[in-house]
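In practice, a research group might receive sequence data for several interacting partners and want a quick structural hypothesis before committing to experiments. The following worked case mirrors that situation: the sequences arrive first, and a predicted assembly follows.
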Amino acid sequence: MKKTKNSKRISLVRGLEKPVWKVRLIGGLILVLFAAVSLKALELQVLNRDKALDLARKQHWKKLTLLPRRGKILDSKKKELAVNIEAESIYVRPRNILDLPDFSNKLSKHLNMPQKQILAMLLTGKPFIWVKRVAKPEVVAEIKKANFEGVGFIEEPKRVYPNSYLAGQILGFTDIDSKGIEGIEYYHDDFLAGTPGKIIVQKDARGKEIISNSVVVEESKTGFDIFLTIDSQIQYIVEKELKEGVEKSSADKGIAVLMKSETGELLAMASYPFFDPNKIDRNSQENRKNLPMWYSFEPGSIMKGFLAAAALEEKKVTSNSRFNCENGRRKVGSSIINDVHPYGILSLSEIIKVSSNICASKIAETLGKDRLYEHLKGFGFGEKTGIDLPGESSGRLRNSKDWGAIGLATISFGQGISVTALQLATALSAIANGGYLMRPYVVEKITDLDGRVIQEKKPEVVRRVISYDTAEEVTKILEGVMTKGGTGNRASIQGYRSAGKTGTAQVPNPETGGYFPDRHIASFIGFAPADDPEMTLVVAVENPKTSPYGGVVAAPIFKGIMEKVLFYLGIPPKTTFAQSRFMPNLMGMSSRDVLRWAEKEGIEVNLKGTGSVIHQKPQEGEIIKEDTVCLIELRQTI
Amino acid sequence: MKKEEGDLRKLFKIFESQGTGYDWGIIASVIFLSSMGVLMVYSTSSVFALEKFGDSSYFLKRHAIYLSLGFAVMIILMKLNYSVLRGLVYPAYVIGLVILALVLIPGVSKEIGGARRWINLGIWSFQPAEIAKFLLIFYLSYSLMKKKEKMDTFLIGFVSHLVIAGSYIILILLEPDFGMSTILLIVLFGMLFIGGVNMRYLAFSSFVAVIFLVWAVMSEGYRMNRVTTFLNPWKDPLGSGYQAVQSFTAFGLGGIQGTGLGDSTQKLLFLPEAHTDFIFSIIGEELGFIGVVLIIFGFGFLMIRGIRIALRAPDLFGCYLVFGCIMLVTLQAGVNMAVAVGLFPTKGLTLPFISYGGTSLVSSLAAMGIVLSVSRHGIK
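A structural hypothesis for the assembly, expressed as tokens:
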């Protein structure tokens, strides 16, 4: 009713009859068209979707992933340590090949692979098979020339380390898919890897990609570049000296860490035998390990330096405190401690200089287990340094409660504790730099392709471990080790003051619980120049055959490295005193003559007794340093 | 005077109550469809634009400018009393003829893909046919209304309109733009039908038109090709059937829910420049059957509201005007979508409000402005 009334009203307006049914008819026809479209869409999208999907599957296109370029690894002088080159990978589509055995036979000749192996790969039933990833260019050229059906090539980046084995264990390596497996490559894979891109590629009827007819959906992003603190020039020196030293002593392994004493940044870190990341297959699993941070060993006498630091810091002793070395034999509990050379009463400085185990145990007793444990922990032993590399070992420092009857004594001379060379380097750097334990690091900065800095490493203080005065005092004691009569004399460098400590440790035999009688780790730790420490160096040689002693095997390596690196870094020698002044023979001179000589030379002397000189220190021929105090003993003679 | 002042006040009330106010249904449909257009133009063109112009939003930016322009024109026209158009139909008709003729002159227009459809004004270019089609509807609406009493006659009612509209259609056919000519021919017949032309003439001329169509198809190789391809696109899926097959694939890939906005693979390589004629296929792929139905509902609703407005128009001029505009827009949309799903052979038609294409977008929105203006004066 209402409708008709409404229509009537409309038609009455201005007396015009509107073509109501005609308008509705045409509108209806268009609605029918819409309905038809909907139904057809329903058919295409829902009811008969498989047909369209089948077509899509057969579509001659494919989504490919574009591998990004991996970031480079460079040294502190921007020298490239790890780069990429483009290499072609070879794949096969077995479905396009009629005679597989014949094909695999032909291919095996080109690839220098057994025919059976290739055939087995092709028979796995997969439509796409890599037969050779990142092949050599000449091989690719040959196969391209042969123009095999069903064979294709794709360019892929290949990681190359232009300096062969240089810093190989630090850099690590990547797998065939450019994924980091070890070292920096592994630790900073996220930064280096970049972001893969996507590309839609049309294919021709044979399934070959027509790259020219492609659409890049997403560009790949090149990874970030990583700059190391390592200077490859220094790394080269360290590796060369280490190799020579290890070979000279017919040892098994060599370890060296060179660290900037102030900051904890690593200038070089070497493990011998070397590892060439370009030839992963040809290196043994063991060689991949970055020994300075992975290999932990009983340090031996090296620990005495830290023992002295702890005792001085606790003010239990001074450098002049005297201990009785009991002529090389001391009973502690049920065990006997021996010294290599028997000594009588020695000052703390002398104990370290000659490396007496007996007196070391006595110094340790002044501290007690807990204090020593706390200090060793403070120096970072028994915990990871937190270096920015993977696979670090924490070494082993047992809690003082578990040290047992002679634990305190053995730990005082570095037995029953294991450390890494890296821990030694950071701990010794704390002595060298005035008491700060630094966090060691090898990555200086990370930048993007345009050189914008993404991340930059700043030196990080872990904690203060000893006071400045203690550090000074220990440095003086360790300088003494380098002088004539000290165990580290062979490490002393002409023209520079240096400080250090030798270590000769036995290698524990896990089967007997004791030590191997004939296996040693000879080591030397030290820093130079002692008056303004620049670098800390730790050298350890495993199982040397010529001599077990650190002072004989490791000290010359230390000297060789330090000398060359000091020169390379342009650190001038202190020629004023050190080089030119040698102690003359004062024997028999009167006190007046001695004083006249001392005044003329500007040397401090400490006279004892009266008469003529019967004892002098330093001995004749030894170097007199600026701060050397000559001890002169006189006695009345008739 | 007083009455006019009242009208003027009314003019500035944009949303008024139903019946006498602007039709909310038209506004809602237009906003919905144009929003979908913005989304889909960006989705379909970004990769192509990045490759061609190094700027993924190259087309989006231009689309946005035309859209704003279109809405501005729409708002102006809807506030205007549509009766003003009565006095403008003759000059409008002449302008339409002139621009349609100009576009055929080399130098004035640029030839793209063998067709002259654009007049190039240096920084700005437009498609005369997209403007002229609405100018023709203005003229026809006025003429049909004016000759109301004589519509039954052969010469005045039928032939005169055929000549007037035919001149447009032939000029457009010369570009050539076969799709648009066909659409206009159908709209012409639709308007003559509601205008009261003698059915016998219509039946006879429809017969003639079909013969003409067949001749037109046969005379141009590419049109013939399109038809045979339409009948069996699988015959040559990489050649002439390519677009149809790729369009089907896009719909199939979409399924019910679609692959997700922006995730079409078809647009990347197989339906290049999918932001124009084949945008509906990519809607099918990315938004699925759900998206397809939503778009069809949008146009369906637009048409239903349009017919309501036509039937409630205060005069025949308004009725014809709204009918013509709505029929033109929805028919073009229907044909475009039908081509995409493979119901019709391939034609170069855009999807109104949604496809990228400046002139078409602005003129369609302008036409909606006139529809809204009529709706404001509608009878309750």
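Before designing any experiment, note the following. Chain B touches chain A through 53 residues (CB under 8 Å). The first helix of chain B runs from residue 2 to 11.
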